[in-house]
C-alpha cells in the first residue's frame, strides 16, 4: 500500500508553503519535551512538507527526523535547514512504510497529514506511528478536519466521509480529504493501540467569514 498522493508533489512545485508551525504544535512540544535533555530526545514529523515543524524542533535542539512523499517538499526542507545550520534527518518516504526501528521515537507530530488519506491507509499509518514510538511516547495529530466544515461532501466521494478534489473551502483542490468525528478518532486510535487520548478542537472562519474551518487535535500515548 502506498498512501502518498502525487497531487502534493505538484502543489509543492507550484506553491510556497507556510514556514512556521501552528501554535498547537508548539504547545505540544513545549509541554511534553522542553524539560527533557533535548540532544537525546528523538522527535519525528510525519508528512513534513517543506519542514515548518521540523525546522522548529531542530531549532529547539531536539534530535529530529522527518519525511514526506514529495521530493520537491523534502528538497525545500533540506535547503532551509542547511541554510540555517540546523540538523535533521529528512527523507522521501511513504507514511505506510516508515524506515525506522521499533520503539525509536519519544514523540511524533502529524501536522495535517493523516487526514489526507482513505481510512485503510489511515489505519496503516497509525499502526506505523505506534510501532516506531517508544513505550510511553506520544503522537500528536492536528488537522483532523471535521465532518460538516466547508467543502465536506463536495468533489468525488471515495468512501464514507472521504472525498477527492473538493470544490469549496480551505481544502479545495488538494487531493484526498477524510473528515472525522470524535467517535471515529477514538475507534481508529484505540484500534492502533493508543491510549490516554486527549481530544481538543478548533472552529473558526476564514476569508471574511465565507469559509468555516474546523478540526480536531489529538494527543495520544503508546
TrEMBL record:
| Keyword presence, Methyltransferase | yes
Biological process terms in GO annotation: methylation
Alphabetical list of InterPro entries matching this protein: Methyltransf_25, SAM-dependent_MTases_sf
Organism, as annotated: Paenibacillus rhizovicinus
Q: Could you identify this protein by its name?
A: Class I SAM-dependent methyltransferase
* Residues annotated as domain Methyltransferase: 44-137
Keywords attached to this entry: Methyltransferase, Transferase
Q: Which GO terms describe its molecular function?
A: methyltransferase activity
Amino acid at each position: 500500500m502506498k498512501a502518498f498522493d502525487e497531487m502534493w508533489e505538484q502543489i509543492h512545485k507550484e506553491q510556497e508553503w507556510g514556514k512556521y508551525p501552528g501554535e498547537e504544535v508548539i504547545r505540544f512540544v513545549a509541554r511534553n519535551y522542553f524539560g527533557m535533555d533535548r540532544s537525546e530526545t528523538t522527535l519525528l514529523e510525519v508528512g513534513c512538507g517543506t519542514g515548518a515543524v521540523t525546522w522548529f524542533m531542530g531549532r529547539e535542539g531536539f534530535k529530529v527526523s522527518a519525511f514526506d512523499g514529495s521530493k520537491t517538499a523534502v528538497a525545500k526542507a533540506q535547503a532551509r535547514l542547511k541554510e540555517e545550520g540546523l540538523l535533521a534527518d529528512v527523507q522521501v518516504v511513504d507514511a505506510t512504510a516508515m524506515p525506522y526501528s521499533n520503539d525509536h521515537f519519544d514523540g511524533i507530530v502529524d501536522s495535517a497529514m493523516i487526514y489526507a488519506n482513505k481510512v485503510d491507509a489511515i489505519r496503516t499509518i497509525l499502526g506505523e506511528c505506534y510501532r516506531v514510538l517508544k513505550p510511553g511516547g506520544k503522537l500528536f495529530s492536528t488537522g483532523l478536519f471535521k465532518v460538516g466544515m466547508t467543502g465536506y461532501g463536495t468533489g468525488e466521494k471515495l468512501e464514507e466521509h472521504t472525498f477527492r478534489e473538493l470544490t469549496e473551502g480551505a481544502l479545495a483542490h488538494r487531493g484526498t480529504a477524510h473528515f472525522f468525528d470524535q467517535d471515529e478518532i477514538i475507534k481508529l486510535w484505540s484500534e492502533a493501540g493508543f491510549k490516554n487520548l486527549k481530544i481538543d478542537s478548533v472552529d473558526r472562519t476564514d476569508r471574511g467569514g465565507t469559509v468555516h474551518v474546523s478540526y480536531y487535535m489529538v494527543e495520544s500515548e503508546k
